[in-house]
Structures are given as C-alpha cells and as structure tokens.
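Fig. S4 source data, part A: sequence.
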Amino acid sequence: MARRQQKLNKQQLQTIKERFQAFLSGETQIVADEAFCNAIRNYFEASLDNTDEQAAQIRRELDGRLQLADLLGKERKFPRFVAKEMEAMYIEELKSSVNLLMANLESLPVSKGGPDFKLQKLKRSQNSSFLDIGDENDVQLSKSDVILSFTLEIVIVEVQGLKSVAPNRIVYCTMEVEGGEKLQTDQAEASRPQWGTQGDFTTTHPLPVVKVKLFTESTGVLALEDKELGKVVLYPTPNSPKAAELHKMVVPKNSQDSDLKIKLAVRMDKPPNMKHSGYLYVLGQKVWKRWKRRYCVLVQVSQYTFAMCSYREKKSEPQELMQLEGYTVDYTDPPPGLTGGRAFFNAVKEGDMLVFASDDEQDRVLWVQAMYRATGQSYKPVPPAQRQNCRGGNQQADAPVSLLTSERSQKHGMDEFISAMPCKFGHAALFRVLQKQTLQHRMNDSFSCLGWFSPGQVFVLDEYCARYGVRGCHRHLCYLQELMEYAEGRAVIDPTLLHYSFAFCASHVHGNRPDGIGTVTIEEKEQFEEIKTRLLSLLENQIVHFSVRRSSLAQVLMKDISTPVPADDVKKVIRKCLEKAALINYTRLTEYAKIEEGMYSVFIYIYITIDTMNQATPAKKLEDVIRLGELCIEVLQQNEENHSEAFAWWPEVMAEHAEIFWSMYAVDMDAAFMVQPQDSWDSFPLFQVLNNFLRGDAHLCNGTFHKHLQELFVPLVVRYIDLMESSIAQSIHRGLEQETWQPVKLKCIIVSLSGLILLCCLFLFRTITNSLPNVPLPKVPSLPLNLPQIPSFSAPSWMAPLYDNTNGSATSEDLFWKLDALQMFVFDLHWPEPEFAQHLEQRLKLMASDMVEACVKRTKAAFDAKMQKASKSTDYRVSPSVCTMFNVLMDAKKQSAKLCVLAAGQEQQYHSKIDDLIEEAFKDMISLLVSKFVAVLDGVLSKLSRYDEGTLFSSILSFTVKAAAKYVDVPKPGMDLADTYITFVRQNQDILRDKVNEEMYIEKVFDQWYCSSTKGICVWLTDRLDLQLHMYQLKTLIKIVKKTYRDFRLQGVLEGTLNNKTYETVYNRLTLEEATASVAQSGALQGISMRDSDEEEG
C-alpha cells in the first residue's frame, strides 16, 4: 500500500526550505530516523567492532588491489608519467606496497591465550623483500600446529537430596578434569551441604571430561578411604551454559539417595585463536569421507592460515584437519541421500568439495560467517531466508538475529556500502577531501596546533594511505596547499612542517628519494612547480618576521635538488631580514615601554625618556632604565629562543644586531647614572640583570657594551665592600662588649625583598652612624632577583643559618649571617672578568677570616673570665652562657669552612689558620671546664678525708652517731654527700647534652671529665694506701664510683675509656676494702657493694 502524501501550504514549505538551508550551512543538524540509526549501529557491532571481520576485510581489500594492478597491466590504463619507462615501475610499486601490507599482516602474531587479539597498526618500510602469499598453500599444517589451550572453572554450589548420611557427618566434593589434577572442596555437614567453591583447570582437550564426586568421611577404624556417595560426569564445551544447573548424580547400589542432585557450574573459556566450534555433520572427498556427526573447531594459525579440525573426547590433537585456503563457502540445499542435520552449507575448491550440516539455522549462519572471514573470499554468502525476503517473501519467525540485521541494512541502503569494493574508488580525491576536513577541524581546535595533526589524526591518515594506496607525494602536495592557504590568511603555521613536506615533494619530483627513484606523474610535477612559486613568496614575507627556517629558505631557493644554493645568496637574504627585523624589534619594545603621551618608536622613546628623566627623581630615572633594560633583554631572548637555529651559520650577524640595541641603551643608562647620588646602591639590580644576560651569550660576553658596564660598576663595588667591612668590624667590637651570651634560637623567616633591605639598613644605621656621620647609609643589595616581577622573597640556600635551630649568641649569629650575605651578594654578581672576580673573592675570604678570628678570641676570653668566677661546690651548674660560648665556637668552625675557603685549586691558608685557632680554643675551654668539675670532686674528697683512720674527728663522729641512733633515726653519714655529687654530675651532663649542639665535643668533655675524676679518686686512695677506709668513706666512694661509671656509660663514653687502668685500680681497692669491711662488721655496708645489682636505687 502506497504511503499517503501530506499536503503542504506555502508557510510550511518556506519553513522546510529554511531548515534545509540551515543544514547546508552547518547551523543545524537533521536527525536521522531511528531505523536508519539502528542499521548503522548493527553494522558497527557486526563488522567494525569485530576484529576478525576487520582482518578478513583487510585481506579481501588487499587481494582486490592485487587484481586491480594486474588489470591495469593488461589494459595499460596508466596515469601520465614524466617518462615512459615508469609505467612498468608503477605496476611494481602497486604490487610491492600490497605485498608489504600482506607481509605485515601475516607477521602479526595470533594470540593463543590471554586477552582478545587486536589488530595493530600496519608497518610500512622501504624493504625491498616482500612475502609471497601464494606460497602459503604449499605449506601443510601438522596436528601440533593447532593445539588449543582452554581454561575451565568449576563452581560447586550445593548438594540436594542427601538422606543416607547422618546430619552431623562430614561430607565434601572432589572435582577433576580427566588427565589433570584433582581438587577438593571444604568440608561441610551433611545437614547443610553447601560450598560455593571454585576450581580452576587448564586443558588442551576441546572435549574434556569433568568428574565430580561426593564423599563422606569414614568413621571405621579400619577404613582406608572415605565413602563415595555419588558422582556425575560432564562433557563441557565453550558453547555450554555458564550458569549453575542441577545435575542428577549416579549413586552406588542399595543407596537411599535415589534423588541425589548436585548444583554446579562449568565454564569453559574459548581461546582467541578458536574462531568457532560445535557439532557438525561433515562429508568430504579428501578428508571426512564418511557422513558423520563430528565436533569441529575453526582454528586460526596465522593471519592468512585457518584450519578446520575435528576432535574426539579427551584428545588434544585433532583427528582430522583441513586448511581453508582457496575454498569458497556458501549456503546450500540438503543433498539427497544424507540423513542427519537440518541446515546445510558447503565449501568448494577446485577438485574438492565439503558438505556441512548443523542442527539449527542460527548455528549455520554463525559457521558460514566465521568460514567466510577465514577464507578471504570476495563473494559474500547470503542466507536463503534473506534471498527469499528480497524476492518478496516473508521473513521466517525463527530467523536468526544476523539475518534481521542484514535485512535492515539492505532496506536502508547500507548493503550497497558494505558490499562495495574499496579499490574501485578514486581514493586520491577522497583523501584530499578527508585531509582538508581533518586540517580544518584541527585548526579550529581551542589549542594551538601550528598545522600539525594530532597523533590520532596522523594514525588515521597513515592507515588510509597505506590501505588504499594513496601516493605520498600527492598527500604532501595537498597538505602544502592547505597549509599555505592558512599561512597566507595569517594563521600560525610551524615552518618546520612546511620544510618537511616540501623536502619530501622535492626529493620525489627530482628523483632523489632515500629509497630510490619512484614514479612521478606529470600532474604531480605541475602541482609542485606551482606550490614552489607560492611558497617562495610566502617565505620572503615570513623571513622578515623571523618565522621561517634557514633550511626551508635554502630548500626553496634551489633550482633542483642536487645543486645547492651559494651561502652568500642566503646570507644576503638573512642580512636584509635582520635589517627589517631590527625595526620590528624596536616596535615591539615600544609596546612595553609605556610613555605618558602614548606609544612611540624606540628612537623617539629614548630621547623623550632622557627629557623626562631631567624632571624625574634619581630613583625614578633608575627605575625607568631598569625597565628599559628588561625589555631589551626580553626582545633579544625571544630572538635567540625562536630563531637561533635559523642563524646558526651566521651568529656574527645576530651579535651585530644585539650590539645596536645595547649601544642605544648605554646612552640612556649613562644619563641615569650621572644623576645618582654618591654611594647609592640601588643600581646593583641593574648590573645583575644585564650581566646575567650578557655573560650567558658567547658573542656578547666581554663585548663593547659589556666592558662599558664593568667599568661603570667597578668603583661602586669596591666602595660598597669597604663600607661593609668597616660596619661589620664595628658591630663585632660593640656587640661582644655588650654580649650577654644568652642562646638565640633562630627560626625560618620569609620576608619581602623590601623588608630584607630595611632590616639591613637598620643594622647599618646602628653601626655606622657614630663613626661615619658624613657617609650615606649603604644598603645590602637585593640578592637573587627575578626581574621584572618580584612578588616576594624567600630565604635562599645560602641563608641556611636562618633555618638551623642553633643556640649561638646574638652577635655571632649576626656576624655569620652578614659575612655570608656579603659573600653571596658578590658571588651573585658573577663578575665576568676573572682577575677582578678573584681579587674580590680573596678579599672577602681574608675579611671573613679576620672577623671569625676576632670572634673566637673574644669568646675564649669571656669563657676564661666566666670559669674564674664559677663556684667549686656541688651546687655548681653549667650556665647557659657557657654552653652558648661552646656553640659560638662550633658555629665559627662550621662557617669558616664556607666563609674562609677559597675556590678549588687555591691555597686554603685562611681556613687552615682559623681551624687551628678554633681547635686550640676548644682544647683550652674543655680543659678549663673539666678542671672546674674535678675541683668540685676534690671538695667532696676533702670532706671524706675527715673520716680518715686515726683522726680525732672520725672518732667523735662515730661516737655521736651511735649514741644518737639509740633515741632517733639518724641519717646515714656520707649518703647525702654521695647523692649530692651524683646529682651534680647528672644535671651537668644533662645541661651539656641539651645545650651544646656538637656531639663530638660533648664526647670529648665527658671523656676528659671521666678520666680526670677517676684519676682524682685513684690519687686520693693511693694517699691512704696504708690506712683502712672508714665505713662511711667506703660506702660513699662505692656509690660515687658506680653511679658515675653508669652515668658516663649512658652518655656514650666508650668501654675502653670507662675500663682504663685507673678505674681498675680504684675498683680493685674498693672491692678489697668492701671484703675487709664485710668480715670485720657483717651488714655494716647495708647492701652497698661494688657488684652490679638491678635492685639498687638510681
């Protein structure tokens, strides 16, 4: 029945016309009908998204291109070439490119396990050896070439109908793939036989046998094996159901479990090289000579080799196999005399024919599609049901999904596109449109591409050229035309891209290709000459803007590919370019140098700047000069970064261009310096900015302007260092006179650059005001600067002392910071003249050596005075100021290694002198401190001397204590004295450990302290060698010796120092006295002993 047409009025017709015009202009999109979209989607899923279909389509396309090449050779329908001999070469080029693609496709491995196989990008090379695909038919496959590998997953869920076993009995299942290992599930009670256990197996049998058995544990004493309750044998295939199903188990005779079932799932994965499998009836002339139902598998051995194999159960090798090369598969009617099978199809080859039959129509369609992709035949089989529908018949109700998809594709016109032969299209013109649209899309991207395609776009264009035989010269000529149109329209195109494409076309047209001479058509040569003329005009316009490569210019100026252009001709063009480029750079400079009246040229700007400077303040003039210098540097850096390759052969031309900039800038800079006040340090940032740029350029370093800059700043640097040296020397003198030696903990500070200069100004104001009243205040110049914008200043690496949690004095920390800052300032100047730079370094190192030497000597004198005033009783504690003096010397030692050492290869005379001075000061200070500690011990020993045997005081004390002990609890004499001394030792150890930073010197103090104390006790005992120690003397000494021994051991004193001969002498004497006292007065020591004991008090 014909569709009724709807009438339209004039207004509706106008609306439709406007929508159509909007569609043509790209302003709107017309939505396709749903049926057409479904047809496109089905075709994508069936063909484009199927790797096997893609590989088969490539094989068919390559075979079609070979046939087309043979047809061109027979009919002699060639393009017009520049030489007649190129016609035969053209046919060889076509065949070689196709054979190369075939060889690349054949070289792709076929995965036999793991993830699905995916096609890779076809490789193209200039190798002259190609694979002859026709010889593949002569290679016979063996059965070992088609061995498959399968993965089986067996999941046992539960058992139902188990009645013959008591509920509390233990049951379990075993599973095995015949010929492989056996696995067992967990144990479960018979009342609830559920597991959910999965077993993984691998096998090479396409038809494996899976056995699952149910057991219960035997309770008999003599039972050797568990009792089998039932079993089931399965024969899975990759097409078997994947979900868990109930299977009836075979039970032993006389078993009560007549309805015993097990629920399990068997999943058998299909390997990637197994394209299809299933049961078929097969009859052939050379193989499968009997009409019989067999389990057949289609195996892919390589990209061009497929085999049809039949397997038996529990066999890894096929019973019979047949290669499919040369066969044509198609649907067929049932042959007479064959029983078995419902849907028939055949495979025909010259001299052989095979008939296949499947059990249903859907399986037949799947088999024919798989074999169609494997044979690579050009004819596409059409199912009989689809043919009948095309002739006007009705679609069968049970038709497979693929038939419905094909019917939809044919209905909507897709079948014409699907069955079209790609080699019959004019791909040169199609590729030109494709590349033009791709470049247009790329240039409209939000990111700048400079004419380069994205990697994905390059991949698509490369594949199109390789797959459909688009000539490389035609590709680049079209590309050059499109790029030049964009470049002429003021779009930014990378000159490198133009150079590569033009060089490729030139080598092709002139016969100088790296892979040899190729065919050149007359059309290609004419297009090349036209493009060369346009490109030369374009380069002449671009070269003045520094947007072209020298190699591109030389390439275009060449008359032919073999005759190079004289260097002088190219240099003349480059010199002319630089003359115009100078004016362009000056124009750019005026865009940054903003004057109140507006924007002027560089020449006008310089004179106006000088006039306005006469009315501005010196600081404003200096600021303007720095700003102008930054702009000059920025312009020259842009020239170097963007165009250094183009002028690599003539760097002197660029150097002359740069000197023009600086000669003009020098006039403005000198004028600004003439009005600056004396001893003004604000100009140092200008030197750093200019010098850092000039010294990095080999052609400008120590050039005319660079030498002028050095002559201008040499007096300023010398004057600055003189003032800073005087200032630091006075700060040391006054600071140490008023020093309280209190520890100062410095923290990490991040300040702005102006804040840093302000702090330095305050420091200089305090130290110079009185001594240099008529000299303007010097300021520490900014150290590392990042001009033109300075948002904040972070303390750099050379300010490491600011980050250390040191405990030095305020004067010493201030001294070291200033010396380091001054040296780093001079270092950051990077003075280009080696002699003057070495002079500055030696002077600063000598100054630092003198300053550190003065600091060390003053610190040593303060330490001596402090020790003379210190107490000699056990109440003495090391004051923080003493520790601070130690830390000052330690900081001086660390800083001298950096501040007083010259560069590598020179004498370290200053550092050696300071190092020796610091070491001697350390030795003296440690000796004085240890002497103070020993004096305290001598005071304790003198108190113990009152108890010497035979003295009157000893007898009086003993009698008084015994008499008083009858009425009150009298403290033990001597224990308070020992405890007080031990407390004195421990607290001073803790103070030194906490306040002194250097571990090495703490260990030296402890070593000398321990040795001196032990020696003092030994001498005291030696003087009483003929006397027996009083009981209180013995107890006090034992406690002091033991506790100090342990305390010093905990502080890290080595065993060799602890157990020296002096200690052994003291230990032996006290042990002997202890034994004598124990014999004379049992229990008088009250548990105090030289023997080690964990129960003693700390």
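Fig. S4 source data, part B ends here. DSSP finds 31 helices and 16 strands in the chain.
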